[in-house]
UniProtKB/TrEMBL annotation:
GO molecular function, one term: methylglyoxal synthase activity
Assigned EC number: 4.2.3.3
Binding residue positions for substrate: H11, K15, T37, G38, T39, T40, S57, G58, H90
Job of this protein: Catalyzes the formation of methylglyoxal from dihydroxyacetone phosphate.
Pfam families: MGS
Lineage summary: Bacteria, Pseudomonadati, Pseudomonadota, Gammaproteobacteria, Alteromonadales
Entry annotated with the keyword Lyase: yes
Catalysis performed (reactions): dihydroxyacetone phosphate = methylglyoxal + phosphate
Enzyme class: lyase
Family designation: Belongs to the methylglyoxal synthase family.
Keyword set includes Lyase: yes
Protein name from the UniProt record: Methylglyoxal synthase
Keywords of the record: Lyase
Amino acid sequence: MSKPTIALVAHDHKKPDLLAWANANMQRLEQCRLVGTGTTGGLIAEQTGLTVQRFKSGPLGGDQQIGALIAEGELDALFFFWDPLNPAPHDPDVKALLRLCSVWNVPVACNRSTADLLITSPLFLSLDYQREVPNY
Ligand SMILES: O=C(CO)COP(=O)(O)O
């Protein structure tokens, strides 16, 4: 398997959580191709030194760009620390992104504990594991 592609996204109040998690998982993240929404991706690249391909900011279409990667079969996992306590102007985009993860059986972590379990799973970087992709 080539490097898995994973997306990193966080709403503003959750960015510190995602950043702390990224710092704690540098070695694993270095083995992945990283993409992210604009502000999140920039922050992670700047503060960890990891290379992150940045899409537009979430409210400007970044979630949808990541959704497009999913629809094209190019995303292996989404780490999306969304904010359950503050409404986002682009909530439909957020829902659409999470929905596509279910449609295409893409693993998604919405908080730090799930992100820990996912990134440390022996299946995650395993050559033997093939995620089942639905055949619509
Ligand atoms: O709004 C977002 C996800 O819905 C994240 O966008 P930013 O990374 O640009 O803040």
